[in-house]
Give the backbone structure.
Amino acid sequence: MHGSGDHVDGRRVSPRDVVKVRSLFISDVHLGTRGCQAERLIDFLRHHDAETVFLVGDIVDGWYLRSSWYWPTAHNAVVRELIELAQRGGRLVYIPGNHDEFLRDYAGAVFGGVEIVERAIHRGLDGGDYLVVHGDHFDLVVRHARWLALIGDAGYRAALACNVWLNWIRRRFGFGYWSFSSWAKLRVKNAVNHIGRFEEVLSSEAARSNVQGVICGHIHHAALHDDFGVRYINTGDWVESCTGVIERYDGQFEIVRWTEARTTPDAAEFAPLAQAAA
């Protein structure tokens, strides 16, 4: 795939600035859209060395690419970064979402070291099992009113376009990144209720699956809590919040916001405490 436009800094991160983690979870990158913050994601990936990376859906936005082709250089660079990880011996697990649902036809296959699965069970170093799934199957709008989901997606892209222009202006005045779309979403009562219901339904699915937690994406709202009797972890996204989830070698899960984390913690903090399970 070839693109044009964005220049990607090819410099590598100093080894002393790379944090070794047991697992890394990212979702909702939406490669192929103008809202995708590919450069931030590349920087995030280069600062984290993980044994296993879970791509928890909507990595590529097939919905948008079908209507309008957009694939700049930075999006190619994300793909290269992930492929290089697999070539170095890291495990790469791809769980398709609704925007990259075309990959669900290949569930069970392995391409270039990338495993494609519908869902996964991850055994954490804390001893718990975690259901890893994108989450769209538990969104009633996506399942039963696809036309409404498509309309909502168009409105969401408009809000993301506002993000681009607003943050261009903020940078001109020396201010940091701020997501207008995320701010607006969390002030609409129906959206807040939808997030709460989604979290409850996914937590119930984890309980039915006899696991101790669920790791998902889909709603672009990073979260980590035990409000519904199991551990609920949402990876967030790379169009608004620029968040990923890491599993540290002490067994703890942590949400990392890459709009804020411009300095890397001491790598010694994440030194292996136990041999990783297969």
User: Anything to note?
Assistant: The two ends are 34 Å apart (CA to CA).
